[in-house]
């Protein structure tokens, strides 16, 4: 009996090494939880001046308590599969200002959304965000990342993670720039969905390193891009990016759903 693989078996093995099955599975989980999904929507990469694609754009909306507003939440997701672990170095420092800064990626017409913008007329007080939003429920945030056990030069040891981060950020900025509408709140979250092992690494003052498996880390990432309004000037932007294991995606969606139900109920 021949041990030679059929062409179909070879194709399947090759596909299983990619992120495509993760994309299809993640989209199915999102749809099962009531999210509308668009596969591979295009976006314009302002930095590279060319069209690119993000893996998934998911959308769900809530009516506010007063019924005067609709809150629409977008998950801009990049899907990755890795046979090697992903490691994120976290600290327990709380930079609440930077986390609030990540939430500027919202669109609303005519009315400030957060207290940080306008103390008197904002729809959502910062206190509501601090008590209910998942950006503020994690005591630690990732500051940098690493892909160990790769037989490549040092420069390539974080290339896949970096590429996923940049795609999620650029696609989020593109969607965020869409037109806003009366009585509609749009909030945009960059997300990376990983089929693979995810680790939280901690470095003590004496440089002792400990690592723990985890299902979800939040990466604090500072991004700069040319400011189209002013030649030679850079625009500085702060992001919080959720990195979620595929097996934990349903729990993450529930977290997002619950917090926005609370926020919508307070508007």
Task: Kindly describe this structure.
The chain has 267 residues and is an alpha+beta fold. The chain is built from six helices and 13 strands. The strands form three sheets. Strands 1, 4, 5, 7, 9, 12 and 13 form a seven-stranded mixed sheet that branches. Strands 8-6-10-11 form a four-stranded mixed sheet, with no helix packed on it. Strands 2-3 form a two-stranded antiparallel sheet. A hairpin with a 7-residue loop joins strand 12 and strand 13 (234-245). The protein is globular, with a radius of gyration of 20 Å. The N and C termini lie far apart (69 Å).
Task: Give the rounded overall mean pLDDT.
Answer: 84
Number of domains: 1
Task: Show unreliable segments.
Answer: none
Oligomeric state? single chain
The major beta sheet can be summarized as:
7 strands, mixed
Properties at a glance:
single chain; 267 residues; alpha+beta; 13 strands
Quick take:
With 267 residues, this protein is α+β, with helices and mostly antiparallel strands.
Explain the layout of strands and helices:
Layout: H1 7-16, H2 20-32, E1 36-39, E2 42-45, E3 50-53, E4 56-63, E5 70-81, E6 86-91, H3 96-102, E7 106-108, H4 126-132, E8 141-146, H5 159-176, E9 184-195, E10 198-203, E11 209-213, E12 216-226, E13 234-245, H6 249-265
Parallel strand pairs: 5-9, 6-10, 9-13
Antiparallel strand pairs: 1-4, 2-3, 4-5, 6-8, 7-9, 10-11, 12-13
């Amino acid at each position: 009996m021949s041990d030679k693989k059929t062409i179909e078996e070879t194709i399947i093995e090759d596909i299983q090494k990619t992120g495509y099955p993760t994309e299809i599975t993640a989209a199915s989980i999102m749809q099962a939880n009531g999210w509308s999904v668009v596969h591979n929507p295009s976006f314009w990469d302002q930095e590279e001046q060319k069209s690119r694609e993000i893996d998934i754009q998911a959308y769900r909306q809530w009516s506010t308590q007063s019924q005067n507003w609709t809150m629409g939440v977008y998950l801009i997701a990049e899907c990755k599969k890795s046979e090697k672990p992903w490691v994120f170095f976290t600290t327990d420092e709380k930079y609440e200002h930077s986390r609030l800064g990540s939430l500027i990626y919202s669109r609303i017409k005519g009315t400030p959304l957060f207290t940080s913008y306008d103390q008197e007329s904002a729809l959502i007080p910062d206190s509501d965000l601090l008590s209910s939003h998942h950006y503020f429920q994690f005591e630690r945030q990732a500051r940098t990342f690493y892909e160990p056990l790769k037989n490549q030069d040092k420069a390539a040891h974080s290339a896949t993670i970096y590429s996923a981060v940049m795609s999620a950020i650029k696609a989020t900025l593109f969607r965020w720039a869409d037109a806003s509408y009366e009585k509609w709140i749009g909030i945009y979250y960059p997300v990376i969905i990983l089929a693979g092992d995810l680790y939280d690494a901690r470095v003590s003052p004496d440089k002792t390193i400990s690592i723990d498996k985890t299902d979800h880390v939040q990466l604090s990432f500072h991004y700069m891009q040319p400011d189209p309004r002013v030649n030679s000037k850079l625009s500085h932007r702060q992001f919080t990016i959720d990195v979620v294991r595929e097996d934990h995606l349903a729990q993450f969606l529930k977290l997002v759903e619950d917090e926005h139900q609370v926020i919508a109920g307070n508007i």
